[in-house]
Amino acid sequence: MTTRAVQWSVLAILGAVVAWALVIGAPGTGTADDLAERLACPVCDGESVAASQTDVARSMYAQIERLQADGLSDAEVLGWFEERYGPEILLDPPRDLGGILLWAVPLLAAGAGIAVVARLRRHRPGTEEGDTADGSTSSARTLVTVGVVGVVLVAAAFALGSFLQPRAQGTPVSGDLEAPTDLASISDETLAATIASFEASGDVPATQLNGMRLALAERYFEAGDYRSATSVFQEVLVADPTDTQRSEALGRLGWILWVNDEAESAEVAFRQAIEAQPANGEARYFYALMLMDQGRGAEAVPLLEALTTDPSVPEDLLPEIEAMLEEARA
Amino acid sequence: MTKTVTWSVIGVVVVLAAVFAGRLDLGETIPESPLIGRTAADLDLPYLEASGTAPLFDGEADVTVVSFWASWCPPCRAEQPELVAAADALGPDGVRFLAIDSRDTTGAAVSFLDTYGRSEYQDVVVDDDNLASIEFGVWGLPETFFIDGSGTIVGKVSGGIDFITVLDLVEQVRSGESIGERSTGEVYQDR
Question: What's the CATH architecture for A188-329?
Answer without folding.
Answer: Alpha Horseshoe (1.25)
